[in-house]
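pls design
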């Protein structure tokens, strides 16, 4: 009798553990903590996976195939990201708070400044700390992958700005954006030291570009450089080095392989084999033309 009871208990525990591992469907409502209004467009994601959804007009969401022991991440621009453990629950309601620090950040807009909470246009701000995280000889290179909708391609030529497209190719006259450095128009910013940049603002939509007229048709990049501050003495030393080389080489044949393929081609065409004079020469012209370049950058 005792053995039978133990077996039944083990079987029940097995069923409980099995049910805990089964994926469940989680639903709920996301609201704004300050007003209690529904939070629309909040991203709900199972942490560590690509399984996610977005809240609807009423702030509601439904997410299926969620492990019972998973963690849900709720994120939205201007709000603090919330992580909530599922713990087998099928209904999870979340209240999100404003990210006051991000909303109160001052952004340069044309000829003036404004707080992020007051902006309605598409303006992206990149701080000096974010630029310093990516050591580069050109400040534009530090924008790569940081700004949505902005394409940056390094040309590889010394002293030349990367090719940057903010609003695509809008005209036959080119796609180069307008640069403004400390309030002055500039055609080339390769001379600017990335360590001297305080902030960079990228203006993308017509509402923020209207003040610049036709010159801002391809987007505007506003650069503010660092300036001396009273009562502060700060000395920074930044050193970086690296290598630059071609990303992808063409897979070519060597001399013997080329001779074999060319002879086979001529044979298929009914022609006589070609009389090679220097078929043993085996020069890799890619190695001769493309060599690794050493890059160093020192600032104090």
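designed seq:
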């Amino acid at each position: 009798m005792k053995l039978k009871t133990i077996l039944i208990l083990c079987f029940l525990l097995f069923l409980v553990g099995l049910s805990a591992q089964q994926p469940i469907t989680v639903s709920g409502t996301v609201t704004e903590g300050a007003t209690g209004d529904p939070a629309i467009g909040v991203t709900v994601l199972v942490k560590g996976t690509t399984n996610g959804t977005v809240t609807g007009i009423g702030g509601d969401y439904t997410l299926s195939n969620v492990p019972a022991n998973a963690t849900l991440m709720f994120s939205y621009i201007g709000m603090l990201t919330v992580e909530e453990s599922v713990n087998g629950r099928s209904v999870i309601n979340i209240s999100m708070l404003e990210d006051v620090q991000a909303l109160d950040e001052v952004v340069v807009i044309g000829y003036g400044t404004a707080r992020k909470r007051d902006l309605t246009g598409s303006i992206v701000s990149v701080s000096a700390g974010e630029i310093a995280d990516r050591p580069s000889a050109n400040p534009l290179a530090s924008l790569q992958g940081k700004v949505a909708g902005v394409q940056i391609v390094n040309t590889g030529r010394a002293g030349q700005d990367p090719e940057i497209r903010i609003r695509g190719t809008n005209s036959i006259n080119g796609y180069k954006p307008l640069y403004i450095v400390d309030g002055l128009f500039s055609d080339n910013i390769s001379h600017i030291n990335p360590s001297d940049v305080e902030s960079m603002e990228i203006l993308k939509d017509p509402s923020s570009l209207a003040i610049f007229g036709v010159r801002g048709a391809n987007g505007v990049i506003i650069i503010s450089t660092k300036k001396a501050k009273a009562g502060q003495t700060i000395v920074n030393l930044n050193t970086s080095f690296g290598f630059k080389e071609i990303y992808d080489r063409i897979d070519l044949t060597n001399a013997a392989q080329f001779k074999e393929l060319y002879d086979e081609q001529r044979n298929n065409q009914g022609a006589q084999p070609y009389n090679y004079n220097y078929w043993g020469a085996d020069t890799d012209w890619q190695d001769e033309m493309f060599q690794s370049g050493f890059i160093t950058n020192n600032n104090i």
